[in-house]
Amino acid sequence: MGSNFNNFQLKTAYWIFIHRPLFRKILVGIVIFINFLIWGFVVYQFSLYLIFWQAHQQTLKGLVEEKIDFLAYHQRIAATPLKVSNLLALPIGQTNRYDLLAEIENQNSYWGVRSLEYRFIWSTGKTDFYSGYILPQERKYLFILNQQSIQPIQNIQIEIKNIQWQRIKETTNLLLKIPSQIMVEDLTLSSVSSTKNPWLSLIKLRFKIYNDSVYDLGSFRLNLLFYSGSQIIGVDQLTVKDLKNRSAEFFDLILSDYLSRVDRVKIIPDLNIFDPEIFANSVSIPD
Q: What is the number of other CB atoms lying within 10 angstroms of the CB of residue 176?
């Protein structure tokens, strides 16, 4: 069989054959170099770990020992206490009876007072406890009307206990708008003569209550504050029943003679949205 290799190929094969030890050394050198790079990288990373080990341990320790200050957290989200001001004992004419009231403010946006108990105390007596409520961000008066006291009521204070706070949910927001949707319209004050004494001039109060909400209301109160100038000189409460949505009710009142100095009246709808009884139809009240 004849050979198929030319002279160049034979020389190249001979050169490779005689230089095999050199190629082996080059291959070994490449392997050693690659291993050197790998081990150098490992040593470098290990050195970095040793350098930053203490800082790393401190970080881990901080993560393990980190605690939540639940007391501070609770204080941040807890309800702000009620603010009491403008305590008044208003005499009812020449009788030994008084209307007692205190202005209470709930400064919380997401907390309402579902219920509370209150009473008035003064230097020579005290009332029984009555119940009340306060909506979020509401400023209102707590009343006790027609309280008898032989001695003049002075140094009046209010005691509030058993406050039941309720966290306000988004589903309650629609209900919270109801008080502002009970509109007092066409309010007028006029002078009329007393039927018992024609020489005695009394004040006639006329106004209209309009339900601009989407709810039919069963029963709620109106708080009336009577002013002479900037001073409250009397209070009263009326009950409104069966006021359907988009409907109105008219009121005509002849004020008592001791309120003859009244020149302004403030009428405040008093609706406890936490109480399903104020609604004519069944309404779900969020817990």
A: 15
Rounded (10°) CA dihedral 53, 54, 56, 60: 130
- Rounded to a whole number, what is the largest CA-CA distance in the chain? 156
The DSSP string of 267-285 is EEEE--TT-GGGBSS--PP
Residue with tokens 């008066």: 141
Cβ neighbours of residue 229 closer than 8 Å, sequence gap 6 or more: 263
From CA 266, how far away is CA 270, in angstroms rounded? 12
| Per-residue pLDDT tens digits of the chain, which is 287 residues long | 445 667 777 777 777 777 777 777 788 788 888 888 888 888 877 777 777 776 667 776 665 555 555 555 555 568 899 999 999 999 998 889 999 999 999 999 889 999 999 999 999 999 999 999 999 999 999 999 999 999 999 999 999 999 999 988 877 778 889 999 999 999 999 988 877 777 788 899 999 999 999 999 999 999 999 999 999 999 999 999 999 999 999 999 999 888 989 999 999 999 998 888 888 887 666 56
Domains in the chain: boundaries:
10-57, 79-168, 175-278
Domains 79-168 and 175-278 share a fold: yes
Q: What kind and span of H or E run contains 230? A: none
Architecture of domain 79-168: Sandwich (2.60)
Check: CB of residue 218 under 8 Å from CB of residue 52: no
Hey, what are 11's tokens?
A: 């020389």
The Cβ of residue 143 has, within 10 Å, a number of other Cβ atoms equal to 21
* DSSP string for 141-177: EEEEEEEE-SSPP-S-EEEEEEEEEEEPPGGGHHHHT
The CATH class that applies to domain 175-278 reads: mainly beta
CA gap 97, 99 in Å, rounded? 7
